[in-house]
C-alpha cells in the first residue's frame, strides 16, 4: 500500500505530516495525519490514535487540539484520521443530505446495508487497515487494542486500572442526552473500577475544551506507554 | 460604541470570546477576538495585541496559535482582529481580485487613494479605535504603544532592552525576501541593542511555527508586563 505525503511541517521539534493512500477497506482515497516527535528519528515510540468526530477531517485535531507540545515532550506518535473527506468521492445518493449521516459520519462500524455497505467500513479501517499501514511505515511499537469503553468496562476483570475522563458540563450534546457518560460510569460502578471523571463546569463539546485538557491526557497515557 | 458578543467558549480556565461592532474608522462591521484569563474576573490584566497577517480572520490565531494556556497562566488578555472579513461588506470594485490586496489585506495603514480611502483605515483602527474600545469595555491596564520594530530600533535611545525574535528558516516568504528580518538586525547592530534572534531550522511561516514558540513569547512579555 503506497503512501503519498500531502504535507510536512516542523512543529514543536517534530514533524506534523499528512499522508494519502488508496484504502482497500473503504474503496476510496483516505487521508491521515501523523505527528512524529523528535524521538521517533532514532527510536520506536508508542502511538496514540485519536478518532475524529462527526464531520471532522484530519485537520481538526492537528490544528485545534494543541497536542503536539506534549507529544513531543513525551515521545508519543499521534495519529488522526479524516471521517469526512474520505467518503466524498464515493458519490452515493443522499450522502450529503444530513450532517450526521453519510460523508461526514465515520461511526467506526462496517455498514451492512445498501447503499453504504461497499465503502462504509470504518471499523475495519481503524482496527485493521490503518494500524497495519502505520506499523509497516513508521517506527512505532506496533501495539493496538480495541476499545469500546463501556463494553470493555462491563466485562473487565484484569489488573487495576487508572482511568481519566474529562467531559464538558455545559455542551448541547450532553444536555440533549446524545452523549452518555452515565452509561460508562454505571459500568465502572458495577465492576468496582476506579475512575477519575471530571465534569468540567463551563466547558462545551468543542476543541476549546479538548485543547484545555489534552496535555493532562497525553501525560496520563505516556506514564504507561513509556513505562 | 456597542459591542455584540458573537461567541463565548470556556478555554483553559478563562473565556475565548468574539465580539462584533460597527467601526467608525473602517465604516463597516468589525470582529475581534479577546481571550480573558481567569485573573481578569477579579483584577486588571495586561493586554497583548496580536496583529493578523494577510488573509487572516480573528479565528486563525485563536484556533491555531495555542496561546491560551500561557495567557491563562500568566494573566494576560489576548486580542486578535480580523483583517479579512472586515472589508468584505464594502463592495469596492476589484477588492477580491488579489489575495494580498483588498479584502484580505489589512496592512495597518490608512489608505490615501480611491477606491480604498473611505474604508481602509486599519492604522487608525488598531492604534486608536480598538484600544479605546478595549479600554472602555474590559478590565485591562489601558496601556498601548505603537511599534514598527525597525523604525523604533533605528531611533532608540532608552533603557536596555530584552528582545526575543523567532523566525522560521525554511519558509517561502523568507527565501523570496518578502520578509526582511535582516533590516531589523541591521538596526539593532547599528544602535548596539542586544537581541536574541532565533532562526529556527526546518520551520516555515505557518501557524505550526507560531504554535511551537508562542509560549516562550508570552512568558517573555509577561515577565515585564506583570513586573
TrEMBL record, chains A, B:
Signal peptide annotation: none
Database matches in Gene3D superfamilies: alpha/beta hydrolase
InterPro entries named among the record's database cross-references: AB_hydrolase_fold, Esterase-like, S-formylglutathione_hydrol
Keywords: Hydrolase, Serine esterase
Molecular function, one GO term: S-formylglutathione hydrolase activity
Gene Ontology terms: biological process: formaldehyde catabolic process
EC identifiers of the protein: 3.1.2.12
GO cellular component, one term: cytosol
Record carries keyword Transport: no
SUPFAM superfamilies given in the database record: alpha/beta-Hydrolases
Keyword Hydrolase: yes
Superkingdom field: Eukaryota
Residue spans crossing the bilayer: none
Role summary: Serine hydrolase involved in the detoxification of formaldehyde.
PANTHER family noted in UniProt: S-FORMYLGLUTATHIONE HYDROLASE
Protein family: Belongs to the esterase D family.
Official protein name in the record: S-formylglutathione hydrolase
Organism (species): Sinocyclocheilus grahami
